[in-house]
Every structure is written in C-alpha cells, then in structure tokens.
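Let us walk through a complete example step by step. Step one is to write down the protein sequence. Step two is to encode the small molecule, zinc ion, as a SMILES string so that its atoms and bonds are unambiguous. Step three, shown after the inputs, is the structure prediction itself.
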Amino acid sequence: MPPANYPRLRVGEVATPKVAVRGAAGGAIMDAMPELPEVETIRRDLEPHVVGRRIVRTWCSDGPRYGDIHDAAGRAILALRRRGKYLLAELGEVGTVASPDAVSGIAARELVIHLGMSGRLFTAASRPDSPHLRAVIELDGPEHLYFDDMRKFGQLLVVRPGEYEALETLAHMGPEPLSADFDAENFHRALVASRAPVKAVLLGQRVVAGIGNIYADEALFLAGIHPGSRSVSRPQSRRLHAALKQVLAEAIANRGTSFSLYRDGHLREGNHYRELKVYDREDQPCPRCHTAICKTRIAGRGTHFCPSCQKPPRSTGNGRG
Ligand SMILES: [Zn+2]
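Step three: the predicted structure of the complex.
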C-alpha cells in the first residue's frame, strides 16, 4: 500500500529554481546524475508496487531513447533488479508471476531503464501533468509506472534477457561493488593495469559498476588518494576498495543524494547531501584537516579533493625515494 504521504504529484515543479538549484555555492550542479545509491533507492521504492503486476499497455514520446518498449505489453513484471546505474525489470509470460523458476531465469524479456541525468521513475494513480513525461507503463493495478525526463538523457529499452549488445556500458559492466564479486586483489590489479587517472577508472564502469562523479570523489577522499593519481599502491587500492563499499552503503542508508534533479520512487529528495565530505564543497574546510577543498577537472568532470589529505601524485624524475 502507498504510504500515507504518497506524493501529490508536482512533476511540473522539476524545473523551478527552488528544486534545481542546490549546493553551498548556490549554483546548479550540472555534472551530477543518479548513481548506484540513487538507483538502488528507486528500485527498493518501486519493487513492492510493480513486481507481480502485468503491463497492460505502454506509451512513449517520440525519440530513439524511449520508443522501444512496446514489446513489454502483455508481460508481467517478475522482478526488479539493478545493475550498476541500470534498472532491469524481468518480464515474463502472464501466469508465471511469482514463480521462483521464472524469476531465476526464464523471463522472456528485460525492460532496461537508465535514468540519464534527470530521469525520474515513479508510480502514481493518475497521469502526471508534466511536459517532460516520456513514457507510461500501464499496469493492471491501481498505479501505473511513469518515466519523466527533462533533459532527455535517459533511456528505455526492451531486450531479450541478458542481451545487452545495444547497451555497451551494460554489456561490459564490472562487478557490483557491494557484492562478493568485487574482489580487492582483482581491483588492485585492474588499477595497476590502467594508465588512466584513478577517478577515470572508477567512472568507466568496467572495473567496478555504478560509480559516478559524487561517490568517486567521496571514496577517493575517504581513501586519501588524489583523484588524478595514475599509480596506486596495494595499501591504497585496499583502502579505496573499502571506501567505495562504505560510501555506497551509507548513501543507500540515506536514500541517496539529492543534488539537483534526483528524486526517489516516491518523488522525495534523498538525505545524503549533508553527509558529503568533498563533493560540491569547494573552498569549504576539509572535515578531517580543515584545509580548503579544491575543485579541478579530471576525466572531463568537476572533481573535488582535499589537497592536504589527498596529496597530488609525484611527478616522475622528481627525487623519488
Ligand atoms: Zn584534508
């Protein structure tokens, strides 16, 4: 059952300055988008409302990123999973709903959902009045599933189970950081093998899944590693491995970070923003040493770090040892 405070839908407010502008500097944070904790929060919110429901019909707005979901109609949602920053709805034939066998692998299709920068996926009893509504998935229950996406970087796609050729990032996704598959020694080897800045490796999704700009900065701070470092020692990679698990688990516990446009499956803001140590805290004191947090650009993304706690990598030929 929906909670008592189930949203009075105000999707049209998405673009109002009150919501779009956050952060100590007062400016909208343009390079933040939903990462693993935000997507996991949405998954947990939606799961009890959609799993077991049959998709009656679908509607999509024009555009190549949303138009490919009509094949979902007539199938039931057997499970709602997450992989990295993707939501995966397992779809099966009507009548196999809640069958353990069906959930374990006989699902006929998967609905793949990526929120992009501003995508919002939520259930509601009636169609929201929003100019940014991109898809409607009508269910055989009191609520339907809606996808609203102001900036149009999101994506919806129906594929055969596990066939992700059209989704290169998903097809080559590294291990889930909160699972046992995320092995510290393998992680260290991958960091050593890469010649890219460590932050770029984290953002790349192939070494570890689900990390974006916010949690890369936060984990590198916790591990005491400069985000531009191209050479990471075994103790450093061990610390980073643990830091990633810690920041992601804490952010999930806080229902994600609402930086600008993210809302959970009930269109509420996440609570993790005030827990951030470096992200979006340029010129504010480091919580550990009180040095002013710096902002630079690494891997094409705004990057926050403490110049004292996260020493820059030593330049080669500069009196090593
Ligand atoms: Zn510091």
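Step four is interpretation. The pocket of zinc ion is lined by residues 286, 288-289, 291, 306, 308-309 (CB under 6 Å).
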